[in-house]
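Priority: low. Protein: TetR/AcrR family transcriptional regulator. Input follows.
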Amino acid sequence: MKSAKDKILDAASTLFYNYGITSTGINTITDKASVAKMSLYNNFPAKSDLVLAYIQARHQEWLDLYAKRVAKTHSPQEGILAVFDAYQDHAEFAYENGFRGCGLLNAAAEFPANSPERLLIKEHKDEVENILVGHLTELIVDKQKVSHLALLLAFILEGSIAKAGLESSSHKLIAAKQMAKELLTKRTTIKITIKNDHKKKNL
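Result:
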């Protein structure tokens, strides 16, 4: 049986994603969660606390999807593509009102620059990019080139999720994965050879 806190967060997550954070009032959340307003404030003293919990939960959902995907991979290249697969998995959830794009980017659009909400969202997006860096480091020696390629892949990833949201479809994410696959094939073939040669010289 779910706790009142979980019911509130689940209800808020659905409403925030479907209708936006600013447009969703406390009464709407408590009605959907079937809890008393006092129960909400006992768990989340302010709406801002609930919003931050939503952002964290949304990112954790993606991390869990990524963990399942990456567990089935056998190479750094597959690990990178698992990031794209996890974005696609998130897009293909059975949302009540359909897929509206990245929940974190949608939330960021509702808050001013440097707000706690936007900073937390940036932290999560940076974590995704760092995951890409981690996989690329296994392929490429040059750290500057790793950072450049990770940024390029992140641009493809985030651009595709924005387009996918506008179309309410995961098709652009599927196309983005193919683009990433082609890019990795072109960019890493020579670099993998260089890295292997570098290892041999150090033996």
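The mean pLDDT is 92. DSSP finds nine helices and no strands in the chain.
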